[in-house]
Amino acid sequence: MSKRLQVVVHQAEFERYERSARARGLSVSEWVRQVLRLAERDLSDGDVDAKLAAVRAAAQHSFPTADIDVMLAEIEQGYGSSLSQ
């Protein structure tokens, strides 16, 4: 379901937004949607230091693995056997 969002801006601001949208070949509405998505994505949803520490800790481990084609074949084989039960 879509919701309408109304934002009141000064005429000069709107004209700048309109120029930016036009330069990208977008409607003002689509330009605003894209800018809002980008702004939301840029927000951190957690402690950056904690995330980096977790990545560094995980990188220290060495787990056995297989060739990707072998792994995918085994997964597919497993799906086939569980479907027939």
Overall 3D form:
elongated
Report low-confidence residues grouped into runs of 5 or more. Answer: none
Strand coverage percent: under 5%
- Tally the beta strands: 0
Task: Summarize the main sheet.
Answer: none
Q: Write the element-wise H/E pattern from the N-terminal end onward.
A: HHHH
User: What is the number of helices?
Assistant: 4
Q: Strand pairing plus helix content: what structural class?
A: mainly alpha
Distance between the termini: 39 Å
Q: Using the CA coordinates, give the radius of gyration.
A: 24 Å
Mean pLDDT: 89
- State the domain count: 1
Roughly how much helix do the residues carry, as a percent range? Answer: 55-70%
Features:
0% strand, 66% helix, single chain, 4 helices, mainly alpha
Quick recap:
This protein has one domain (11-83). 66% of the residues lie in helices and 0% in strands. The protein contains 4 helices and no strands.
Question: What would you note in describing this structure?
Answer:
- By secondary structure, the protein is an all-alpha fold.
- The chain has one domain.
- The protein has helices spanning 11-23, 28-42, 48-59, 68-83.
- Helix 1 crosses helix 2 (28-42).
- The protein is elongated and about 60 Å long.
Blueprint (SSEs and pairs):
Layout: H1 11-23, H2 28-42, H3 48-59, H4 68-83
